[in-house]
Amino acid sequence: MSTECGEPGPGGPLGGSGPGQCPPPTASTPWSLPRWRACVAAAVLCYINLLNYMNWFIVAGVLLDVQNFFHISDSNAGLLQTVFICCLLLSAPVFGYLGDRHSRKATLSFGILLWSGAGLSGSFISPQHSWLFFLSRGVVGMGSASYSTIAPTVLGDLFVRDQRTRVLAIFYIFIPVGSGLGYVLGSAVLQLTGDWRWTFRVMPCLEVTGLILLLTLVPDPPRGAADKQEEAAMGAGRSSWCEDVRYLGTNWSFVWSTLGVTAMAFVTGALSFWVPKFLFEARVVHGLQLPCITDPCSNQDSLIFGSLTVVTGIIGVVLGAEASRRFKRVNPRAEPLVCACSLLAAAPCLYLALLLARTTFTVSYVFLALGELLLSCNWAVVAEILLSVVLPRCRGTAEALQITAGHILGDAGSPYLTGLVSSALRARRPDSYLQRFLSLQHSFLCCAFVIALGGGCFLLTALHLERDQTQARRPSPGTPDSTKEESQALLSHPRAVPEAP
C-alpha cells in the first residue's frame, strides 16, 4: 500500500518520490526585480515624497499673506494645519486597509490626484469664503495620507536589510527637504509674482509629472516579497483588520515607538508651522524688520528657515541612518537607542533656541539648526524599526496606525494649541510687538519637554525590540517556511515519524 498524501513517513512527503507516492511540496518562486528597476522605482517614490511634504508646509511659507488675505487670527491660522492633519489621520486607516489588500499603485495614484486637485482649487477661493480654503486643505491631507501610509511599505518590499535601511534613509531625507522647499517655494513665488496663490498653481505641474512616473516606472511588488515571506507574497493566511490591530496592540516595540513618533510629531508640527512667523516677530523686536501690515509680507525668515531645514534634514537623516547601521553591529538595540539619544539632546537645543531669540538672534538660529538636525536623525530609523518588528502582512496597517496616533495626539493639535495659547496670552498683555513675540515664545516652551518624553519612549522601545523582531521573522503555521521547519524537526526525531504500513 502506498503512503497517503500528507502522512509523513518513508516514501511520503518527507521521503523520496516514487510510483504512487506524493510529490514533495514545492515552494513558490520568489518575486524578483532587477536592481536598476528597484533603484528607479525608489527614485520616483522619493521625488513624490518631496512633493508630498512640500504640500504639508507650503502654507507656512506664506502664512502672513494667507492671514491678511482671509483675515485669519493666530488661533484660526493654527486651525489650518489642524484641519489638514485631522483629515490625514482619519483617512490613513482607510488607505492602510486598502494598501494591505488591494493594488498599492492604484491607491497611490488616487491619492496624488486628490491632493493635487484640491491644492489647485484652493488657489481660486475668494476672501469671503475662507471656510472653503480650510476645506481644500483638509482634502489635500486626505490625499497625502495615501502616500505617507503606503509608499514606505512598497520600498520595504523592494529592498532588504542594509539596502532597505539606506533606501529608507534617502526616502525620509525628503521629509525635511520637502518641508524646507515648501517654505522656499512659497517665499520665492511670492516675491516673483506678488501673489501667494501662484504657489498653489505651480505644484500641480510637478505632481502630474510624478503621477506619470509612478504609473510607468514603479512596480507593485507582492507584500513581503523582499523578505521572501511566501505567506504574504501568495496572499495566504490573510487576517482580518481587527486581528491585525490586536496583534499590533500587543507588539510593545511598535506601541512605544509610535508614542515616540507622536512626541516628535507634536513638536515638529508646532515648530514647522509657527517658527517662520516667530522669527519674523523676533526680527521686528530687534529692529531688523518692519512690521507687516499690508500684502505682500516680505518674510525672509521663511526662506532662511526653509534652507536651514533642507540642509539640516539631509545631514540629520544620513547621520542617523549611518549611526544606526554602524552601532547595530555591536548592539542589536541600536535603532531605538539612536532615536532616544537624539531626542534627549534635541530638547535643550530647542529650549535654548526659543529662550535666546529675544537677546541673541544669531545664537538662537544656531541652536535651532542643532535641534532640527537632531530631530531629523530619526525619520529613517523609526521607519526601519516598524518594518523590522511588524509582520509583512500588516505593515500598511501598522504605518496607518502610527500615522493616525502620531497625528491625532501630535501635530493635529499642536499648531492650533500653540496659536490658541499665543492669542490667549496676547489678550492679557499690552498690545505691542514685544508682547506679541513673547506670547508666541511662551506658547512654544512646552515643546522641549514633550520631545524629552519622546526620548523616554524610545528607551522603552529598546527593551522589547529583539523579542518583537524575532516574532516578526518567525514563519506563521502552514506556510512553506514553517512546513520546512516542521519537516526538519521530524527528521531529527525518527521516533516521531510513523512507519508506513
UniProtKB/TrEMBL annotation:
Cell compartment(s), UniProt: Membrane
Mode of membrane association: Multi-pass membrane protein
Comp. bias regions, Gly residues: 8-19
SUPFAM superfamilies for the chain: MFS general substrate transporter
Region (Disordered): 1-23, 469-501
Name by which UniProt lists this protein: SPNS lysolipid transporter 3, sphingosine-1-phosphate (putative)
Major facilitator superfamily (MFS) profile domain residues: 41-466
Main localization, broad class: membrane
InterPro entries in alphabetical order: MFS, MFS_dom, MFS_spinster-like, MFS_trans_sf
Annotated keywords: Membrane, Transmembrane, Transmembrane helix, Transport
Family: Belongs to the major facilitator superfamily. Spinster (TC 2.A.1.49) family.
Gene: SPNS3
Pfam families assigned: MFS_1 (PF07690)
GO cellular component: a single term: membrane
